[in-house]
Amino acid sequence: MTKLGLTDDRLTTMNLLSEAYHGLSCLVTELLDAHELAVIEFDVLRHLAGEPDLRLRMSDLAALTRFSQSGMTRVIDRLQQRGLVQREACGEDRRSWYAVATGTGLDRLRAALPGYLDLIQRFVVDQASCDQLRATVATLRAIRTATVA
Questions:
Q1: Mind listing the pLDDT tens digit for each residue in 109-145?
Q2: What architecture does CATH give domain 17-147?
Q3: H-helix segments, 67-102
Q4: DSSP secondary-structure letter at 53?
Q5: Is 0.85 surpassed by the pTM of this model?
Q6: pLDDT digits over 21-39, tens only?
């Protein structure tokens, strides 16, 4: 039987990245479940909260989260039903809609954020020196730039 090259460092790198992501994803999902938020809902609220007027076009939210526009519509529908966001018509383009964070949505985000930041601190920041962390962030930015075309 021929050797398949399963000891290739590229496979090891990808496997470790995948396993680390999966482990962190499980921890984040568990945390957000306690706040009655799906990961994508948290991401949407986080993006909206980062905007000066707490709103983004639905198409921009879809692009930021790498979700389809129809998928984003379903997410916003769920958040709107729970009073966490509202929709506003876009004055300059009648076909576009804004998603806008509500006070209730911001409160939900504020409640989840300390635990989320604690997970990042314990499982990412505390695992590396400052130089390693800077190098990791630079590498992840380069990967993101190369893969987001």
A1: 999 999 999 999 999 999 999 999 999 999 999 998 9
A2: Orthogonal Bundle (1.10)
A3: 69-81
A4: T
A5: yes
A6: 999 999 999 999 999 999 9
The strands making up 55-57's β-sheet, listed across from edge to edge, are 55-57, 97-101, 85-89
* Spans of all domains in the chain: 17-147
Residues 44-98: tens digit of each pLDDT = 999 999 999 999 999 999 999 999 999 999 999 999 999 999 999 988 777 889 9
Taken as a whole, the chain contains a residue count of: 149
Phi, psi of 57 (to 5 degrees): -65, 145
What string of DSSP letters covers 9-36?
Answer: HHHHHHHHHHHHHHHHHHHHHHHHHHTT
Which phi and psi (to 5°) does residue 58 adopt?
-60, -40
For residues 119 and 121, what is the distance between their CA atoms, to the nearest angstrom?
5
Phi, psi of 4 (to 5 degrees): -90, 0
The string of DSSP letters for 97-146 reads EEEEE-HHHHHHHHHHHHHHHHHHHHHTGGGS-HHHHHHHHHHHHHHHHH
For CA atoms 122, 127, 132, 135, give the dihedral sign.
negative
